[in-house]
């Protein structure tokens, strides 16, 4: 079994997740990262449900992130759904 080291997940940024500066709020960005990490863990079969069967779990402790720059609006990646929900 080959381990998938990188994981990409597209997100739809909602208007209430963006501040007046048109930048995604830091807390929202961290929510996106946590959601992507949980999905990646499930793919690797070390997600919460997988570990629950073995009476284990994982916990994010001492989260650390380095800010590389501001996330600005831009083109979506190929295949992303840019439609507004009805």
Would you count the extended β strands for me?
0
> In angstroms, what is the radius of gyration?
16 Å
Order of helices and strands: HH
Helical proportion, percent range? 25-40%
**Structural class, from helix and strand content?**
mainly alpha
Shape: elongated
Description:
The chain has helices spanning 26-43, 48-52. It is mostly helical and 86 residues long. The N and C termini lie far apart (41 Å). The mean pLDDT is 79.
Summary of the model, kept short:
The chain is 27% helix and 0% strand. The chain has 86 residues and is mostly helical.
Keywords summarizing the entry:
mainly alpha, single chain
List strands and helices in order, with pairings.
Blueprint: H1 26-43, H2 48-52
